Amino acid sequence: MQDLEGRIFRIQRFSIHDGPGIRTTVFLKGCPLRCIWCHNPESQSFSLEVGYRKERCLGYHECLKSCERSAIEASEGISVLREKCDGCGKCVEACPSGALEIYGMDVTASHVMEIVERDRVFYKNSGGGVTFSGGEPYFQPDFLLSLLEECRNRGISAAVDTSGFTDWKVIETSMEFADLFLYDLKDYSSERHRRFCGVGNEHILQNLKNLLDAGNNVVVRIPVVPGYNFSEDFDSYIEILAKLGCRRIDLLPFHSLAKDKYRWLGREWLMPEIGDEARSIALAFSEALEAMGFEVTVGGYF
Ligand code: SF4
Ligand code: SF4
């Protein structure tokens, strides 16, 4: 294969929530959406970014001395001046306490495949494989396609976890190599989709329809975020899911576990505490969907 280079921010082995069986999930960096509830804020920008955990900082300021761009200032702990930072990682090497880390790394497709291959025996025994997630994996189309093609050549099952906000032509090309699409539908309302995710949903719905019409294996994943993309408006969701021809739905109740990551990135977490309401609504919606003949899971793909 042509050994392309791409940018990822994590590879998670033994994953059980990103498709069937035991999987390796490869998280690609970069996303065209900006969902207000995003659980992976470090995935959104394609740039390499510094994360700073103040609670680990010893205050000796080795990082300041190491930064050639004067992108770190002493404060109570330190402040990273993100507009000056190029993600070189020298401060991370200099920090003795692990208070700094870089989100993102450039890797070749063959390096990714080498890690994927380590768990081949588990994929075989569990019906698992690889899931390419993000961020938005189609944000790096050539890199993603080369990985998918390589999985197909090696007989490893591959899934794509996507927001669907990409060129249809790229999705269409990937259909030849992907065994499963985990397709996010963040809201049936385009107005709310634009307000909370940064873009309208028309293009996403059209791509989803194209995928389903072409007979692909698709699970539609809906985040349940009460007060944002969900109230009790089950009927509007059901109507659109039925019209599109979706059969398998995965409901993902909102949680606040990503809150600290925003702080590490120097960003504000704009979500309120939602508590158990997300799960209760997801369970009620699940019952309503099952009554209409949909296959539903709550809380991840099992
Ligand atoms: S990653 Fe490089 S440029 Fe950014 S703060 Fe650290 S040393 Fe400075
Ligand atoms: S599409 Fe996914 S990765 Fe992108 S901003 Fe939304 S939740 Fe985050």
Itemize the secondary structure elements and their pairings.
Elements: E1 5-15, E2 23-28, E3 49-52, H1 62-66, E4 72-75, E5 77-80, H2 90-94, E6 100-103, E7 105-108, H3 109-117, H4 120-126, E8 129-133, H5 141-154, E9 158-162, H6 168-174, E10 180-184, H7 190-197, H8 202-213, E11 218-224, H9 234-244, E12 248-253, H10 259-264, H11 277-291, E13 295-298
Parallel strand pairs: 2-8, 8-9, 9-10, 10-11, 11-12, 12-13
Antiparallel strand pairs: 1-2, 1-7, 3-6, 4-5
Residues 50, 66-67, 69, 71-72, 80, 85-91 line the site of one iron/sulfur cluster.
Describe the structure.
With 302 residues, the chain is α/β, with parallel strands linked by helices. Helices cover 33% and strands 23% of the residues. It has two domains: 5-45 and 105-298, Alpha-Beta Barrel (TIM Barrel); 49-103, Alpha-Beta Plaits (2-Layer Sandwich), CATH 3.30.70. It is built from eleven helices and 13 strands. It has a nine-stranded mixed beta sheet. The chain is globular, with a radius of gyration of 20 Å. It binds iron/sulfur cluster (2 copies). One iron/sulfur cluster (SF4) binds at residues 31, 33-35, 38, 40, 43-44, 134-136, 163, 197. Residues 31, 33-35, 38, 40, 43-44, 134-136, 163, 197 line the site of one iron/sulfur cluster. This is Pyruvate formate-lyase 2 activating enzyme (PflC). Its cofactor is [4Fe-4S] cluster. Belongs to the organic radical-activating enzymes family. Keywords: 4Fe-4S, Iron, Iron-sulfur, Lyase, Metal-binding, Oxidoreductase, Pyruvate, S-adenosyl-L-methionine.
